[in-house]
Every structure is written in C-alpha cells, then in structure tokens.
C-alpha cells in the first residue's frame, strides 16, 4: 500500500512522528482485508495486537511517497505474525514484526477459514 506523507504525519521539522509508522502499517493491514471484501473486525471476531518489535532505520519526510509491504511469516490456529516494512524508493525506513491474535468475545479463537485463506496469500508478501 502506498501513502503520501502529509503535514499531519510529521513533527515541526517535517519528519514523520515515530508512532505514525504504526498507523501506516495498521492502515495497510486493514486495506488488505477491505480490498478483498472483508473486514479485520466483525461481530464474529476481530484481531488484536499481541506484540510488536519495531526498528526505525531512516526517517520519512513531508511529501515523501512511502510503501508498506506486508508479509506473513508465521500462522497458527489463533494468531499470525506479520513482517511489515515501510520503504521509500529502495530505502527501508521502518520494519515491524507484529503478532496478531484472533478473538471472539474477548477470548482467543480459531481464525475463520475465509480469513485464514486470505492471510495465507500474504506469505509471499502480496
């Protein structure tokens, strides 16, 4: 998913505020669902972030076009781990491993087959 960095994403020096990289990644994950006619949250269940490991390499700046790539690196019955990178041209700016747990009524639950099938396509970083 591609984003332009807007003024609201930056600090006074025009550099992307660190927390906004997490927002860029969240938007990209949500868009992977929406673009396939699904939602990351429904009455049946939803994903929550279980853990994050993030690395900031280089800053994005006001006006930059950044790309978020999402690749699944581990899948289990009730959770998935994704590797998400934010890049500008050929430069990696930010990398994050995020573990998401699937819950129904606030309790861990098996990921539904339809969602699990979609997530499986992320193995190659589609």
Automatic annotation (TrEMBL):
GO molecular function: hydrolase activity
Pfam families: 4HBT (PF03061)
Highest taxon above the source species: Bacteria
InterPro entries from the UniProt entry: 4-hydroxybenzoyl-CoA_TE (IPR050563), HotDog_dom_sf (IPR029069), Thioestr_dom (IPR006683), YbgC/YbaW (IPR006684)
Sorted UniProt keywords: Hydrolase
Residues covered by the Thioesterase domain: 14-93
NCBIfam families: YbgC/FadM family acyl-CoA thioesterase
Similarity annotation: Belongs to the 4-hydroxybenzoyl-CoA thioesterase family.
Name listed for the protein in its UniProt record: Acyl-CoA thioester hydrolase
Organism name: Hydrogenimonas cancrithermarum
């Amino acid at each position: 998913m591609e984003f332009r960095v807007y003024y609201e994403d930056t600090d006074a020096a025009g550099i992307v505020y660190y927390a906004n990289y997490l927002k860029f990644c969240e938007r990209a994950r949500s868009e992977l669902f929406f673009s396939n006619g699904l939602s990351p949250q429904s009455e049946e269940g939803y994903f929550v972030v279980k853990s994050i490991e993030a690395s900031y390499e280089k800053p994005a700046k006001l006006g930059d076009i950044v790309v978020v790539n999402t690749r699944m690196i581990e899948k289990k019955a009730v959770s998935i781990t994704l590797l998400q990178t934010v890049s500008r041209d050929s430069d990696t700016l930010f990398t994050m491993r995020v573990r998401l747990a699937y819950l129904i009524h606030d309790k861990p639950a098996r990921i539904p087959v339809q969602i699990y099938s979609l997530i499986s396509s992320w193995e190659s970083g589609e």
